[in-house]
Write a sequence for this structure.
């Protein structure tokens, strides 16, 4: 299970970076408030679950502040993905069953939430990019990523 979760989190970090790069290439998309709001929502959720996994405090009021630029949001993604990938690369199978969040959830359940949640919102962002006349990146699927396992940019 641990190896699969490591792959899912590596894929998620890569897919987020590829989508951000596609948005940056399209000025209307890069300036779009909807993208910033949606990407911010994704990263706030990711950072929440990461704080739970690392047993760190989570300041919801601070996290709710949406950066003024796509670059500010990209920096949040980079920081969170780096910390998460560092953590998961050192994790043991026994870490996955540890309870988190005081809701009867385990680390593995929180990680699955992160992966599935971000996948859904990436799909919404691809649609929004098309609506704005941009070109979505091809092949963001996990199964496609497995062929070469590229790292995030």
């Amino acid at each position: 299970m641990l190896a699969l979760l490591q792959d899912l989190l590596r894929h998620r970090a890569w897919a987020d970076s590829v989508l951000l790069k596609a948005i940056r290439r399209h000025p209307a998309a890069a300036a779009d408030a909807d993208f910033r709001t949606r990407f911010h929502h994704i990263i706030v959720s990711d950072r929440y679950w990461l704080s739970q996994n690392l047993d760190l405090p989570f300041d919801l009021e601070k996290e709710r502040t949406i950066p003024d630029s796509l670059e500010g949001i990209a920096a949040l993604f980079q920081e969170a993905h780096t910390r998460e990938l560092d953590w998961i690369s050192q994790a043991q199978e026994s870490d996955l069953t540890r309870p988190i969040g005081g809701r009867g959830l385990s680390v593995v359940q929180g990680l699955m939430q992160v992966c599935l949640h971000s996948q859904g919102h990436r799909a919404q962002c691809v649609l929004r990019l098309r609506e704005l006349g941009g070109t979505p990146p091809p092949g963001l699927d996990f199964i496609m990523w497995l062929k070469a396992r590229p790292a995030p940019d």
About this structure: The chain is about 70% helix and 5% strand. The mean pLDDT is 93.
